[in-house]
Amino acid sequence: MNPYEKKRRWKFFLLFFAIIIGAASVFYSDFFVKKMEREEALQFQLFVKVTEQTIVMYDDDRYTGLIDLIRANTKLPIIVTNAKDEIQTYRNLDSTKTLYDLQKKEGINYDLPYFQRELRKMKEQHPPTPITGVEGDGSRLYIYHKDSATLTQLRYFPYIQLGVIALFLLTAYVAFSSARKAEQDQVWVGMAKETAHQLGTPISSLMAWVELIKSRFNAEEDPLIAEMENDIKRLEVITDRFSKIGSKPIVEDHVVYTVIYNFVEYFKLRTSDKIIFSIIGDEQVRAMLNVPLFDWVTENLLKNAANAIENEGKITINIIENLAKEEVFIDVTDTGKGINRSKFDAVFQPGYTTRKRGWGLGLSLTKRIIENYHSGQIFVKESELGKGTTFRIILKSSITYEPTSNT
């Protein structure tokens, strides 16, 4: 299992674990909500019974204090109306809006819209409970109530809690990802510079050995020696690439077609002759490039394309100029096995590879070079299993076009 697959499995495991914790929190909170609903229902039933007894024993002073005590301990918002929805009394509503005097009918001072809103909410939550002991439908009283503020808040608490936890986890994930990325960058830079340093000595020795062979065996014109010199120069370029990692590379104005053509001419001699290379498109478009690093990008894409072709095939590099946005499109298309659409982003992740051998760092490094050092973009433009894949690079054109005016 490659590192990318391991990391993805860990992400799924942590996500599953977080879902389990969230579900347990919601279930536990729901248990308390239901328990509190039952207690409030019993409290409301007690208030109804007390109200009914108040009507029966209105003139009995022996129980008035006890009844008032029980009613005072009822915390539910309650409104008592008659059959015409006219408010008779209320309890536990907003004291700033409920200056309602039942005994004094003249000069009533209360917030009528507030009562209407509260009554409407009560009707939506619970059906009314009629008070027995009152004769005649016209004089029958009804008690409406709604859930207490504590119960309402408790219902929303688990979702607020989950939101806070999710926000905390997201913040922690971003912070740890940034720290890990910075640590990875330091490792990349350290390994790259150390590799460049280690390559320096054997390259110098190889250059000396080639010069010795040329002088001793009079092989100045030998094509094999020329190819050896090309490979040594290539090693020098690679060393230069690694030495540039971690530092700000110098980008210069270059003809894109020429840069790609020079590398392809070198690369195709070291690839299977069953693979045909083709460079098409605009031969004059220019962009700001660091040639050693951009050659590295081209090499990684061509190697990836060549590995995707099992036997015979074709690799096409199409250079397109987007005049409207002053951009350069470079499409690298192969006739290989293709990439599943779900893997379009994953192929650029460090450690992702479909080969039995390999570190899965080529495309990740390619993305880093294009985005960080050339301020461009790279992505899988399209792919079809069994038919091939197209990678697109987008660079900023170094040619600025002035708008033409018609006179």
Topology readout:
Elements: H1 3-56, H2 61-72, E1 78-82, E2 87-91, H3 112-125, E3 129-130, E4 141-145, H4 149-216, H5 223-244, E5 252-255, H6 256-268, E6 275-281, E7 286-289, H7 291-308, E8 313-322, E9 327-334, H8 362-373, E10 377-384, E11 388-396
Parallel strand pairs: 6-8
Antiparallel strand pairs: 1-2, 1-4, 3-4, 5-7, 8-9, 9-11, 10-11
Helix pairs in contact: 1-2, 1-4, 4-5, 6-7, 7-8
What does this structure look like?
This protein is an alpha+beta fold. Helix content is 52%, strand content 16%. The chain has eight helices and eleven strands. The strands form three sheets. Strands 6-8-9-11-10 form a five-stranded mixed beta sheet. The chain has a four-stranded antiparallel beta sheet with strand order 2-1-4-3. The protein has a two-stranded antiparallel sheet with strand order 5-7. Helix 4 runs antiparallel to helix 5. The longest helix is centred in the middle third of the chain and has 68 residues, at 149-216. The two termini are 67 Å apart. 17% of the residues are buried.
